[in-house]
Give the backbone structure.
Amino acid sequence: MIPHWQTHLTELGMRVTTRNGAPCARGSTGADPAWIDLSHFSIVAFEGADAKSFLQGYLTCDMDALTPTNALIGALCNLQGRVVADVVAAECDHRVLLWTHASIAQDFFAALRKYLVFSKSKATLLDWVALGQLHETPVHAPWTTMPEADGLRIALPGAQARSLLLLPLSAAVELTRSEGVIDATSWDVIDIEARWAHVTHATTASFLPQMLGYTALGAVSFSKGCYLGQEVVARAEHRGAVKRQLSVATWHGATIPDSGEPILDGDGQRRATLIMAAGDPDQGVALIVAPSDFPGRGSTAAGVTIEVR
């Protein structure tokens, strides 16, 4: 989390803690907060003549489809086809912005930067802030982008109409000072219900895109040509070699389980992996990756019960 943003949130009365390897805020400010704090995500900017073509060779999405008015969902895989990070890609002021989980942003940044010596582009980890906003009705079709407060707004999918704002620090401070901010619990629930799994430090380089449901979300192009890990991903898709899949589950317990926690069966054997969870202090919803013969119910080492819906 950007130090000045953390100070700002603390001054507003929020509690800054760490969850899933990234700092995040808890609580809310004001009677009816307008904004959702998403500072457990970071923003990497790529700029230069070859920025889009460079990323075309590394991300699963087709960067040729990226325009100033249309964002993309995608992922970075390693050579083994395992997802290193999931991203939202958007254009802003002739730069490509990639939004990814803060726990892996530095590693993601470093992994791509070493290849930039062969490209006419550069990468920067921005001191920008991500905010979410919920709407009564959709403002635009999902993935539509539009300028906002020196940054941009991206309409996102989900059962609840919502949008993601990527903003310079000063703009984010001004908005939240006057209109209030709340933590990301409700936002995470919407992501889980939409089966949008975010990769963290605990789950990076562990799963094929298909295991995380990314093909169903449109995050993987099978027609764009080569990218890092493409042969493995395509082989798994066309040969039906994917043995594990994403499922929505409920959880009950004393604490919210963390990303990457093993899910054990009645004999104490690891049968699945928790990807993300959200909800109240003692119950909520989760995304898990499990094999087809998963019994449908298990628990974490801390005694949190997980049950597939």
The mean pLDDT is 95.
